[in-house]
Design brief:
The structure holds 2 protein chains of 2 kinds. By secondary structure, chain A is α/β, with parallel strands linked by helices. Chain A has 15 helices and 13 strands. In chain A, the strands form 3 sheets. In chain A, strands 2-8-7-6-5-3-4 form a 7-stranded mixed sheet, sandwiched between helices. Chain A has a 4-stranded antiparallel sheet with strand order 9-10-13-12. Chain A is globular, with a radius of gyration of 22 Å. In chain B, a hairpin with a 4-residue loop joins β1 and β2. Classes of the chains: A alpha/beta, B alpha+beta.
Chain lengths: 407, 167
Amino acid sequence: MVENVKALLKAHAGIAREVYLDNENSTIVPKDVVDAMLPYYSQRAYGNPTLTHKPGWEAFETIMESSQKISKFLGAKILEEINFTPGETEANNLALMGAAFTNKHKGKKIVISEIEPINVLHVTDLLQKFGFTTTKIPVDREGFLNLEKLKEAVDKETVLASIATVNNEIGTIQPVKEALDIVKDKNPETLFHTDASDAYGRIPLNVQDLKVDLATVSSYKILGPRGIGALYIKEGVNVDKILEGQIGTQKLWPGVENTPLIVGFTKASELAFEDFEANVNHMRKLRDKLVDGVFEKLSDVKLNGPKGDKRVPDNANISFLRCEGEALTIELSLKGVYVSSGSACSRRLLQPSHVLVAIGRKFSEAHGSILMKTTRYHTEEDITYFLEVIPSAVERIRGIVGSTGID
Amino acid sequence: MSRVPLPYTQKVLDLFRNPKNLGKMEDATVTAVAGNPACGDMISFYLKINDQEIIEKASFESYGCAANIATASVVTEMVKGLSLESAWKDVTWKKVTEEVGGLPSVKFHCGVLAVGAVKRAIRKYYEQKGSAPSWLPQELTFEEKQALEEEELAKTLSKRLKVAEEK
């Protein structure tokens, strides 16, 4: 199999320019972040932070200072509210399973939206086996939560609600505060979790203002290293660990703390927040250039998700009608443009993105969808190159589709 | 919901870039479609069949992934010049998969769909003619059944979507 991939890579030889836009699924880690991490592998703080020697105490100091910084960026009250986990998936698992198991005496009902990230959907599926039931609140055609249905769904048995701050696929900024008020009004005991991974570093976010009980953030979603994230747990909220092992500074995640990754996550956060307005404006400007350019150059295209200030500034999700998404990602890759598709042409039962289906997109629209996210490192030239390449790529795939595949 | 790596072969990539016999055939004797856009996986086949029941030309259009395009392209090449009987008997999804240098297992169905579409076209030819040869089985073959099953799934999915919309 790896031989096949070598041939695929060889087919990319001679690419003039590369533009990486698949920042939903993985990102570059900028040099500044890597440089900040490197000393922590072999020069300092490489010890176990719970042990009584200099490298251990250095690690302890580093981790506490990192928690402090991230707690500030999130608007948390104290650094102890920050719990590092190996990523967004793990933080969401900890939030949902931990909160549900620890508080099951308060009820066994969970409320989420139809468009929560895959890991949230999967955890609620698993929790069914433990007697928890989940209500999925529908969203409208732009991905906004139906607050009436939310109100109906919450009752005295509801132990937990989980609503992402920003949808990772279509960029919808949810009215989290209103949703939380509705939930708490019906049941003050219900814990409210939000996956804020796609909001952190992109929109103003303050967990104390939002009054959420739990919030997930992820390093790689802000150009930090993969393999690290954090779960904010408001002081006084009861959540137990979900994995067993040796506990150190992170009371809810056993195992030896990964200090270099924590440093990388913190550095990436600093870079995102240092010049927050400028970063965000840059992302928005390039994203708008990208979307406007596509609509100018191509017909039969649809933007998925809302327009304007209710959309996160980095997200572009466009359906190219009469164009199959996976084929388009390969065609673009051969031209040095890297994107992902909401098409799921990889299983017998080919279900496209659950988010696009939830907002009422036809299957053919979902199969032709491409997700892109701009970052502060993209340039005008990157987007110009993308716009040069996209029309011929789409037209070639549409040429293969011809008269077939129109529903 | 999970993702799988898709290490396509050089042959799949080559055929994706330069598919053979692509496009609608205006003078086709028979056309057949398999799959459904709801699945993101659909092929149209066009066959030009002469009086001796030899396939003179074959072409395709594909709403599908690289594997779908590559296998469809291979099938058009394979059936060209064959009698309907040997196209029916000798073109199997396994041969098609071998011809593209193998496929990731989750993409086997693309080859199956391509062969299913050709078999449908052949069946349709005899239906139009009003007589079937003795070698043509009444019962659907594996590939035809698979195509049908995929279409049924698509229908179920679409129904579910409509129900969701009405909610």
